[in-house]
Each structure stands twice: as C-alpha cells, then as structure tokens.
Amino acid sequence: MLTNTTKVVKKTGQEPLEKLRNYTEVVDFLNSRRYADYNENVIKRMKELDKLFGNISSKLDIVLVGGTNGKSSSIHFACKLLKEEGFNVGAAYSSNFLVYNESFVVNFQTIANKDFADVVNKVINIVLAKNIDATTFEILTISSLIYFESQKVDIALLEVGIGGKYDATNFCNPKISAVTRISLDHKEILGEDVENLTLHMLEIARPGSWFISAEQSKIRLQKMKNYLEERGVKWAMPIRKLANLPYIYEQLYGRIASLGERIAQIYIEDIKGKFSPFLRGNLLATQKGQRGRPTLEAKRQAELNPIKTLKNFWKDQFDLLKGRFEVLDKEKPTIVLDSAHNLDAFENLFLGLRLLHYQKALKGLALVVGLDKKIESDKFLKVIRYLLKKVNGQVVFVPNSKNSYSFAELQDVVLKAKDYNIRAKACKNFVEGFQIAKSLVDQRDGLICITGSNEIIGEYWQNRGIKKF
User: Labelling 135: which of 26, 49, 344, 395 has CA 20 to 30 A away?
Assistant: First the structure.
C-alpha cells in the first residue's frame, strides 16, 4: 500500500495547498478539469512535474506505444509475455470505461482505491501549489509513474493518448517506442494529412532507443525507417507475421499480438542482454553465434526439458482486455462489447462479427452504436452495408456522449441509411436502444454488438449495475 505523507497546511480563508483528499474527492477533481491538450505547453508542464517529483521518469525503463488502433491491446500482450519471463510490469492505459483506476495496472492487478487516491492526491497538491495548468491525463500520467516506482516495476508501458509529438507521455526517454497502425483519427487536432500524422507519431522515438511498428503499408514503413535512422533511432524489423492466437482472434489481433512479442523480445534480449528461446519461438534453442545442427546431447536435453513455445502459451494464456471484442457468450442473446470509435477499428470489429457468423450462423444481429461526430455518417454507412450483406441485421443508433451525434442528428442518419438499404432506428438513450436491440434478435442464437466509444461500453455495465470491474 502507498502511504500518504502529505500534511494539511492550514491557511486562514483559503483551501490548504496540501490537502488530504479521499477517493471521491480525487475523482471529482479529475472530472472537473479538461481531459487532455495537444500542444507544446503539454511537454513543458510534464517536464516540470517530472522534475518536481525527482525526475521520476528516469528511474524506470519505459516503453511508449502509439498508433491509431490497438495500442492498449499491444501493451496487454507485451505485459503477458514480460510477466511470463519473470519481470514486474506496469501498464498505464490512456482510457477507461467505469473508473480511472483501470488506467494503472501492475502485474495485471488494477490499483486499489486508497492507493489511487494517495498517489494522485500528491500530484494534485503539487499542481495547485505550483499553479500548473495540468490536464487530467497529465496528472494521471505522472501519477502512474510514481505508483510504478513505488511498486518496484522493472518496466512500464505507457499508452500514448493522441498523436505523439505533444502527447502527455512524450516527455520521457523511452527504451522502446512502438507504433501499431496509422490511419486518420483525431482529424480535428492532427488534420487529414496522413504523412504529417505519421511524423507526429514518430516523435515518441529517441536517438539510441529502439523503434518497432505494425504498420502494414510498405511505402510508409520505408519513409518511417529513413526518417528515424537519420535521427539515430534503432530500427527493428517491422511486424510481418500474425501471432499464433486461437481462432478467430488471430485474424483480428494477430498482428498486434506479434507487436507485443517483439516489444518483449527487444526488451529482454537487446536491452537486458538475456537470451529468450521462448520469445524466439524455437522448439530447440540455438544460442547466438552457435552454428550447425544441435548436438545429440542438446536434442536429448530438449526432449527431457521441452521449451515452452509461444503457440502453446497463447493457447493457454490468451485473453483480451475489457471492451476489446469482448464476447459475453453466457448472456442471452450473446453480447459483444467493442470500443471501436473510428472507421479502421470498425472494419476490424465487423470482420470479427462476420467470423463469428461463419463459425456459427447468427439468427439476427443488432448493432447498438454510439456514433462519434468525427466519423462521416456516409462513410460509416458504407462500412455497415458491407457487413449486413454478409450477416442479416439492423442498426440502433443512440447518443451516448458529448462527442456523439445527437438524437436529432441520428434521425437524419437513419434517413440516409434507407438509401443504403440498411434497416436502422434512432433512440433517445442507451437503455431504450438496448431493449429494442434485444427484441430484434433470437434470444438463444442472436447477437447484440455494443460499440462506438468507451462511454457506451460503460453505459452497458452501469445498466447491469456494475460500478467497477
């Protein structure tokens, strides 16, 4: 447990600068501030906070993971492998569904309420005392590092929030930087120029550190390689293969899991200088520099002491984070929760729904969607149309956050949907939309997919009476 050493300093007529806040007060403070900025002042504030806390970032081996989609899953997969190899691992995620605690995880254990309140309260007091205009994400980022250092983690993996160049995570000097996949997102901040967006994401890399990517465009990869090597960054071979995940997940998350494998391997072998036959995937390990066939003795020892393989590991240990193609097959009808919020993520989600249908024919599909305003409705409807040509289903649109289409706007989207031969309906809230979706599918063999944002996933769980995972 963390101990809160902050003392209350009483000052007549004003709130004490060093205040002991309980968990609820800390959460209220975080909710009262804007969540994130993206400009050069972010990096200045983060460096100031880092210095005020004894250059906490320099005390940890840090990995930054950026990209458009799949960041949190890449971190999750890398953490599983690093933990398997005996490391204490911290993961800081940039988003949550129900509570902020979900963002701080050590060895797959979410931070407790008291520990969260203690560590974040320390940062809040410094922010107020020094009059630093820090956002919620900035406070959480520094707090996560303080917590990881207190838990003596060996390696901390941080999820980049927006872009990279001016992201709150980009003040530190990572040992490894990774970019998952690059496509248009946050256009209101980063613009619609993919090349410029790519450069923003590459800014998380540092001279002398390693960089790895799961980007699929060979042309873009070559440009990335040239750009980074000119700046003295160590370029690791990009991801080509899919990890051996169980069906159907290999097609959905195979490349992301493979990125996690490479992050773990680079850290263990190139940074820590250890040999990991497990991560190399060899049935019979060959040490670096060894040539020729294994000796008879080596073969005999391998038979007596078989090396664990990645394929068997994923078979036994595979799982996904909450809200990432989360299949609740015990529910009637089956529920799929997915936090997809841009077209690239929706395409991957809909591929998964098709694969589920091919595995076992669905008797009705209902999509409950909280559509983000950043997505052009016509483009989204085209993606939906392709899915519904393969799987018989309907769409139920619901407003679910300040960034989503309003009920009136969704009614216009429903009218457009008719032009695409899509059956759709707009509802005033999630509860109404979910009840309608349940009436559209077979209770035993139908499926309801809830998607569009973190908020709509949170609404599902809150509707179930769940306040914390």
Answer: 344
What's residue 453's pLDDT? 92
Which tops the pLDDT comparison, 191 or 195? 195
Among residues 370, 71, 349, 341, the alpha carbon closest in space to that of 184 is found at: 341
Q: What is d(CA 257, CA 52) in angstroms, rounded to the nearest whole number?
A: 36
Q: How far apart are CA 98 and CA 462, in angstroms?
A: 8
CA–CA gap between residue 231 and residue 432 (Å, rounded): 54
Q: Which CATH number fits domain 23-259: 3.40.1190.10, 1.20.1560.10, 3.40.50.2000, 2.30.40.10?
A: 3.40.1190.10
Residue from 182, 179, 178 nearest 192 by CA:
182
Q: What is the pLDDT of residue 173?
A: 96
- Widest CA span of the chain, in angstroms? 82
% the chain with pLDDT above 70: 90
Domain assignments of the chain as residue spans, ordered by start: 23-259, 326-463
Query: If DSSP states are collapsed to H, E and C, what string results for 166-190?
Result: CCCCCCCCCCEEEECCCCCCCHHHH
* pLDDT value of residue 13: 42
Assigned superfamily of 326-463? Mur ligase, C-terminal domain (3.90.190.20)
Per-residue model confidence as pLDDT tens digits over 201-239: 899 999 999 999 999 888 889 999 999 999 999 999 878
In our burial notation (b when 16+ CB lie closer than 10 A, e otherwise), range 405-416 reads: beeeebeebbee
**Cα 362 from Cα 352, distance rounded (Å):** 13
Which one, of 342, 440, 344, 455, lies nearest residue 398 by Cα?
A: 455
Q: How far apart are CA 417 and CA 300, in angstroms?
A: 65
Predicted local distance difference test score (pLDDT) of residue 287: 53
Burial status of residue 350 (CB atoms within 10 A of its CB: 0-12, 13-18, 19 or more):
buried
How far is CA 195 from each of CA 78, 163, 215, 227, rounded to the nearest angstrom?
28, 12, 13, 12
Specify the amino acid at residue 327: V
